[in-house]
Amino acid sequence: xxxxALDAEDTKLLTLARGARARISAVEGAAIRDEMGRTxxxxxxxxxxxxxxxxxxxxxxAISAGAxxxxxxxxxxxxxxxxxxxxxxxGEGVPVYVCSVAGDVTDTVLT
Length: 111
Known about the structure:
By secondary structure, the protein is an alpha+beta fold.
C-alpha cells in the first residue's frame, strides 16, 4: 500500500524508484526530480567490481542531463541512505523519502 504522506509528484518518484528496483531485482531503487520537474530513476549497481547506490546513479544521470538542482528524491528498499551526492546537486533542505518495498515512507531525510 502506498503511503499517503507523499503528494502526487512524490508518488510518481516512488513509482519510478520501485520500477527501477524491480526491473533488475536490485537491492534498492531511487528516483529524483530536478529543478525543472524532470525525473531520473536508477537501481543499485553491484557486480563485484563496480558498486554504485541507486541514489548516486540517479544523481549522476541528472547531472549528465544538465540538472542544476533537485526538488525531491525517493529511495526504496533500504533503511538508511547516503545523501552526499544529492546534496552536492541540490543543496540543503531537499527531502529524501526512504520507503519500504511496499511503498510506505519509513523515514524522511533532508539534504
